[in-house]
Write a structure and sequence with these properties.
Blueprint lengths: L10 E5 L2 E7 L8 E3 L6 H6 L1 H15 L14 E13 L3 E12 L5 E2 L2 E4 L4 E9 L11 E9 L4 E6 L2 E4 L5 E2 L1 H10 L9 E2 H5 L28 E8 L1 H10 L11 E6 L3 H4 L4 H15 L4
Parallel strand pairs: 3-4, 8-14
Antiparallel strand pairs: 1-2, 2-3, 4-5, 5-6, 5-7, 8-9, 8-11, 9-10, 9-15, 11-12, 13-14
Length: about 300
């Protein structure tokens, strides 16, 4: 009789000409099978920063149900399975986005919604310029730098929004918006000049009984893991320089130009930027922190 094959950590599902692999999520209890798409490997998934942050955050949140005071303590939810549904690679090599479905249920058979668009975090900047002949510590004549660019997921070719990107290895604001700002104004934004408004506004978890989600804004937590810390950067500049930028940074793009900049009065930016969650969140957080004397 042929020996029986015992498949444990990893096995293959053959579907036509493609193969989908499965592995067991490390340090999971109960054991959680992860079903991959053919183009994705276990190593690629486990090294993807967005997945690492998401799964560690979720696992910790599930562990807080052990506290007798937790609303779900009597029938705690458990992660049972993860199905990777699709993966997008940037430049053909670097994993950029994932679509997955997490099966989360309790022993009563009750489920929590688990469809996730996984993309990870970014940063957004509230960049405020003010003429240097205005009295300090006032809100007079403050202007905000915005970007105007296509945002296909929103169906827009010209969406006004707060500059977004990342902090590079040296702590400097980087990305397409930062590059455009440097090219058009010569301004660079080093970490030493940044104020993290979300850290000021959102209390840090004080114990393991608390969830350890990011000190950041979640613009679409019903479907995406995306989190955005909001930073403030303020600079006083010569009035003539500000006037020159106001005439130049109008938001109107030259033929074929994909991204451009706009200077807009801070006091009215909530009207123009009402479609951008980053603008509204940063505007509200800025005024809340100012009102509480924390800025």
């Amino acid at each position: 009789m042929l020996p029986r094959l015992r498949l444990t950590v990893r096995h293959l599902h053959l579907t036509g000409a493609t193969a989908m692999s499965t592995f067991t999520l490390p340090n999971s209890e109960p054991k959680v099978p992860v079903n991959l798409t053919p183009e994705l490997t276990e190593d690629q998934l486990l090294s993807f920063p967005a997945f690492k942050v998401w799964i560690s955050t979720l696992q910790h949140s599930l562990s807080t149900q052990q506290d007798p005071s937790h609303a779900f303590n009597s029938a705690p939810y458990k992660l049972r399975k993860i199905d990777i549904q699709s993966a997008d690679f940037f430049g053909g090599k670097r994993l950029g986005f994932l679509k997955l479905k997490a099966e989360i249920s309790n022993d009563k058979g009750e489920n929590l919604p688990g469809s996730v668009f996984l993309r990870g975090g970014s940063v957004a900047m509230l960049l405020i310029l003010q003429p240097d002949d205005v009295r300090e510590n006032t809100e007079r004549e403050k202007h905000v730098i915005l970007t105007v660019q296509p945002r296909i997921p929103a169906g827009s070719l010209a969406l006004a929004e707060l500059p977004a990107g990342m902090l590079d290895d040296s702590g400097t604001f980087a990305g397409a918006a930062a590059k455009e700002i440097a090219e058009e104004t010569g301004l660079e934004i080093p970490e030493s000049d940044l104020i993290n408004m979300t850290e000021l506004a959102i209390p840090r978890a004080s114990s393991d009984k608390d969830e350890h989600i990011q000190q950041a804004v979640y613009p679409s937590p019903g479907g995406s893991d995306e989190f955005i810390p909001l930073f403030l950067w303020q600079k006083r500049v010569p009035r003539d320089q500000l006037k020159e930028w106001q005439g130049k940074l109008t938001g109107l793009r030259k033929h074929g130009e994909k991204i451009t900049l706009m200077l807009y009065p801070l006091e009215h930016v909530w009207k123009l930027g009402g479609r951008d969650a980053k603008i509204l969140s940063a505007w509200a957080m800025y005024h809340g922190l100012k009102r509480d004397g924390r800025l």
